[in-house]
Design brief:
This protein is an all-alpha fold and 24 residues long. It contains one helix and no strands. It is rod-shaped and about 35 Å long. InterPro entries: Cyt_b/b6_N, Cytb/b6-like_sf, Di-haem_cyt_TM. Keywords: Mitochondrion. This is Cytochrome b.
Length: 24
């Protein structure tokens, strides 16, 4: 469960950042 929480937090942080970078 800890790993799942870490993975969710990681994706929640990286995906929006990647999208903002992609769209400028």
């Amino acid at each position: 469960i800890l790993v799942l929480m870490m993975a969710t937090a990681f994706l929640g942080y990286v995906l929006p950042y990647g999208q903002m970078s992609l769209w400028g």
